Amino acid sequence: MIARPPLVVPLFALGGFVILLGLVLAGGTPLVDFDTSVSHAFREYGHRNPDLIAVLRVATDVAATLPFLLGGVAATLALLGRGQRRAGIFCLVVTGVIPALWGLQHWLLHRPRPLDGFVTATSNGFPSGHTSNAAAIALVVVLLLWPRQARTARVVTVVLAVGFALFIAFTRLALLAHWPADVLGGWLLALVVVSLAARTATARIATARTATVGETTTAQEEVSDPAER
């Protein structure tokens, strides 16, 4: 089973992404000033903590493209092997669409990364690929486990998933691999894609449930009002 996000979630995320994309393309002073000030703070932090930067260089690649693809394919095969066809297809779609979309935007949008970062990256930066991947992983895990878990387990899963996504975002900022707007764009992109994929994968189930509820309500009304027969 897959938890079905309400429609407002992808719509809200899509609206936010479009607005952010417009601001990035316009290069407005408020956004530039914000990106610059945050990155400057992380630059100073990195120079004061070189050992931490060395650790983050390794840790950030947990959400790199190759591990993301390999993990996604492995999860897909595992789900299909257990007979969970919808969940497997859902996982496969997310695995393919997320890197395809952020990769396309890196190719189309001119968005230089911060200069002299602590890692070498030559491609454009919006949205952050690592952040998109990490957020997608977190969302997929939550949506797949949510229907199977009790309340306490759900809280633990959400906390761990959000923590993972935030940690990868932190590594991208601390390493000066991306501007803050790139990271925010990665979160929004993942939220749009994963929530839409989940809604699509569960569309027939939701329709069937609605029809069943309608039939049950009609039957109850007929039984409770025999005088009209």
UniProtKB/TrEMBL annotation:
Keywords, alphabetical: Hydrolase, Membrane, Transmembrane, Transmembrane helix
Pfam families, sorted: PAP2 (PF01569)
Top-level taxon of the source organism: Bacteria
Identification of the protein by name: Undecaprenyl-diphosphatase
Regions crossing the membrane: 7-32, 52-80, 87-108, 128-146, 158-177, 183-201
PANTHER family: AT30094P (PTHR14969:SF13), SPHINGOSINE-1-PHOSPHATE PHOSPHOHYDROLASE (PTHR14969)
CDD domains found in the cross-reference section: PAP2_like_2
EC id: 3.6.1.27
The keyword Coiled coil appears for this protein: no
UniProt GO molecular function: undecaprenyl-diphosphatase activity
Phosphatidic acid phosphatase type 2/haloperoxidase domain location: 87-198
